[in-house]
Design a protein that fits this description.
α17 (508-519) links the parallel β20 (499-502) and β21 (525-528). The chain has 24 helices and 23 strands. With 678 residues, it is of the alpha/beta class. Strands 2, 3, 4, 5, 6, 7, 8 and 9 form an 8-stranded mixed β-sheet that branches. It has a 7-stranded parallel β-sheet with strand order 13-14-12-15-16-11-17, with helices on both faces.
Amino acid sequence: MVLDTPIQYLKGVGEKRARLLAKLGVFDIRSLLSLFPRSYEDWGTITPIAEAMPDIPCCVKAIVRRNPTTHLIRKGMTLYKTEVTDGDTLLTITIFNNKYAAEKLIQGEEYLFFGKITYSLFGREMLAPDIEIPGLKQRIRPIYPQTAGLNSKALEKLMETALEKTADSIPETLPAATIEKYNLEEKTRAIRDIHFPPDFESLERAKNRLIFEELLLLQLGLMMTRGKNRNAKATAIKKDYSEDFFSLLPFKPTSAQRRAVEEAVEDMAKPHPMNRLLQGDVGSGKTAVAAALIYNCALNGLQSVLMAPTEILARQHYRTFSKLFKGTDLQPALLVGATPAAEKRRIKEGLENGTIRFVTGTHALIQKDVEFENLGLAVTDEQHRFGVVQRARLGEKGYNPHVLVMSATPIPRTMNLIVFGDLDVSVLDELPPGRQPVETYAVDSGKRDRVFNYVKKHLNEGRQGYIVCPLVEEGETELIAAKEYAEKLASGAFKGYTVGLMHGKLNAKEKDSVMTAFAEGEIQLLVSTTVVEVGVDVPNAVIMVIENAERFGLSQLHQLRGRIGRGAHRSTCILISDAQNEEAADRMRIITGTADGFKIADEDLRLRGPGDFFSARQHGLPEMKIADMLNDKAALVVALKAAKEIVEKDRGLELPENKALKTAVNQLFKTVSPSGMN
């Protein structure tokens, strides 16, 4: 049986089970074997009942002293109880609503019981244990992700069948030299041992092999997608005009901004393309750094492009750059989806013949008919909202242009290694003069009236504010729908004030209209979803209230509050949440206790894990099946080293020993880019 065989043809599956398996991402034998256990139960180590630690899963071997008795607690709840002994100690076994399991227990017979033992005045008890006959399952058992109608035991049986049928069909992915150098298990054995390990040492070796492989394939795929070659030729800038640019600024640049510009200009003066990540906390002045590089390119006869993820942000950049470059020969163009057709034609002609030296815009910039005469610098802003493929496409608009990616989302080092392993990093770790720290408080909904009065106090003083909601429309009754909420506020608590509404389902023109009205002070209070997270710069906005704050990640909360504190006035962010769980409380404690975006990013990664920190779709990253970017840092560093070694010798993975590797890379990335890595 081959790995690409549809799962419904595996013995024990059929059409009905195939539909259930599809919910777990299993469509063929290959994806079934890649459904790795989420944990394991050690049925091979028998624990004496007297030595069992409370509330820690263990396996005991014991004889049933009497047949189970039935206890009807209430309608729909029946308990079955019995006593078992391992010869020294008694243990009460309680089974819930499972007559079949209870009837399997025969007085005088010996069984294995797996579960947690609790202690009380009445002795030791194990609730709802798994029960097996000794010998059959006396080993390390896999526990799989489950879905309604398909439990772990059923998946275990299917996995046994699949491994039996494909024992000789699992190809080796890694080159023999890599396996030997890094002392790795061979693929077939690793797959077998990850599902049915004979011992924990074998399990560890299988995990190490598969984690290494997954991280290696990820790095190789990203390197091939980026297509960046440090030895590629690029157009170097001849003269540094940074001081001329700084003299245009209405403020004194921070030493961090100067350092970042100096690092980038030094790169751009070399005959190889710059590949640099500019990381800076909310409001740290990344735009001014990008403007300095754009200005340098223009005066050196090169064109620049800046791509933003939303039209709101693209338009704001256009306005900002228009002001910065006022009085110079460098005038920006704006190219977005909503740009009128005649204007689009004019801009495209200007870019192609070189009369337009700088353009900012959205995905419209990477359309096939957008061509440049001499593109020297490609900038992406809020880069985590773009896939790696889109980022590469922007760079392909010129002959090895210098590349700058900007992030206002501080990214932990682990994620940096994964997503930007090929980039040099500049960090803006100072706030420009005049930026106010934002005081942040967390309260429950019982204080909402007091919070609203505090907001009104600021509005009465001529300031503006935001109220952020997590939803746009009805759908989850326990949460506030933004549309209804805005109307309720306008006719209730904020009657007499101008209340606006911003949400993701407005078209670009409507969003721009609302934001313009807010920026010009026509709207005093803006009720918004997280659309406001990026691209809104209103110095007069000094107060923000975030409803259902537990619904947001830490980094997102930090990004949101970065919309205020942008002027000379004291600013306050108030988080409203009634969530009682420990994680929500942890988040509120962290966000109110620090304004350091990098500390917040590390905590966010710790709390949510990398799968949720950035979605795979945003990054263009495939889903990881076994590697954990938070806990597998050591493996990540080793895999990155191995990937670089392979690519240095064979960038296209064309050598015979790398053919299987290339196939595996394509397989991993096929859900991200339909064309794979070819």
